[in-house]
Amino acid sequence: GGTGLDDPEILEGRTGKHVDTPFGKPSDASILRKIKNVDCVLLTRHGREHTIMPSKVNYQLSIWALKEEACTHVIVTTACGSLREEIQPGDIVITDRFIDRTSLRSQTFYDGREVLIETAKKLGLRFHSKGMIITTEEPRFNSQAESFILCIWGVDVINIITVPEVVLATEADICYATTAMATDYSCWKEHREILKILKENANKAKSLLLTTIPQIGSMGWSEMLCNLKNMAQFSFLLPRH
């Protein structure tokens, strides 16, 4: 759960659970229970009161805690700024590529995107089935000059949390997908209804997740999870003897 989507009410018969990991305690209790008979865990990235800045989130322990609960998929939500005219405020972007422009976050430690795409179609949501996202440090937003450079690079949206979550999830053999919800045009084009769009996006994302998760739970993922495990195993450089 990210900005605007950390509501435990989406889980039926929920219970809270505090866990310890080698990296400390998560930002908040894990909320366990079901969404339409699928076992789920909701972990609020920034804490229940949204008090933890993105660069201060302990991403390692968050992913570790989800792995300890035997999670096989992580579906995240993130507010983002659009760097493309056609990605309008209120649109959802199901990203498939990322650029890392962070410098303060530990990163050591795909994909069920098609299900999200098909569900978004059925719900009639305005969405984009692919996109490149860039993650930067906060609290400073991009300058207009920086936003124009990112447009030239071909970046679609900008946020402050995708990295290192996606890297850590891959290392933990967990399928990871991002639903990036555009709130504005970054600062390269004027747009003034950010809070209104943020609330509307949260409602869209809830609908998307509540419809998608039962479908994910009914599908077979053993081959993909095996491939993820093999990819993680052979992604580390081994020393020569």
From TrEMBL:
Gene3D superfamilies: Nucleoside phosphorylase domain. One of its GO terms (biological process) is purine ribonucleoside salvage. GO terms for molecular function: S-methyl-5-thioadenosine phosphorylase activity. Keywords: Glycosyltransferase, Purine salvage, Transferase. GO terms for cellular component: cytosol. Residues 18-213 form the Nucleoside phosphorylase domain. InterPro entries: MTAP, Nucleoside_phosphorylase_d, Nucleoside_phosphorylase_sf. SUPFAM superfamilies: Purine and uridine phosphorylases (SSF53167). The keyword Lyase does not apply. This is Nucleoside phosphorylase domain-containing protein.
